[in-house]
Amino acid sequence: MADRLLPIRYSMLNKISILSTRPLETALLEAAKAKDIYIDIISFIDTTPIQTSGIKEEIGKLLQQPASVVFTSMNAVSTVAPYINGQTPDWNIFCIGNTTRQLAARYFGEQSIHIVGNNASDLADKMISNKGIKQVVFFCGDQRREELPGKLRQNGITVQEVIVYHTISTPHKVDKVYDGILFFSPSAVQSFFYANAVLPSTILFAIGQTTADAIKTFTDNTIIESERPGKEDLVKKMFEFFKK
């Protein structure tokens, strides 16, 4: 159909230029290059773990007791993991899929993973459907989204939030014109658009609905959303779009 025709510069005879707002594995960059898709990496946010005595004490107490624990970011998992010191906590873990799930299984054991969601909202819905969940510990950053804790509290589940990392905006002015831009979080979206605008023809790729919704507050450009919360899935979506 006419509305799916791509601009001439997307032709198989031309190289495609993509900006990723988060680091990508070398294998993904090489796979893109093989398709004449060239990806520049510019990070628009940074994260720093909170390593205070209060956090150490709080996590230490939680390690000594059974708990229902929620992770919706790999940064939260990576920040909490060093505190376990070889212990195997009696935790039931609820998390989003792909990288966050893989890290949680690596550090806390596959047996600890109880419910996995495609995104924070989907995870909350699945947890609410499990009538046995009454109270959870939510390890998160200081800019965490409201979807999960809000839904859980509205459905009578007590949420203890433990903020374990800071998210820092690192805006950059981008002068290069890109055919597409990959966004992996609402925070990165806000940081990018703080210093930049995009041409109407630029295709924007979002990892999940919350990131896509953040993009919509800044532009009416075409947004392609990945169904699964993984960097690889978003890159594959981009491959599929430009090589149709």
Automatic annotation (TrEMBL):
GO biological process: uroporphyrinogen III biosynthetic process
InterPro entries, sorted: 4pyrrol_syn_uPrphyn_synt_sf (IPR036108), 4pyrrol_synth_uPrphyn_synth (IPR003754), UROS/Hem4 (IPR039793)
Residues annotated as domain Tetrapyrrole biosynthesis uroporphyrinogen III synthase: 34-235
GO molecular function, one term: uroporphyrinogen-III synthase activity
Source taxon at top rank: Bacteria
One of the Pfam families matching this protein, by short name: HEM4
GO CC, alphabetical: cytosol
Name listed for the protein in its UniProt record: Uroporphyrinogen-III synthase
Species the sequence originates in: Niastella caeni
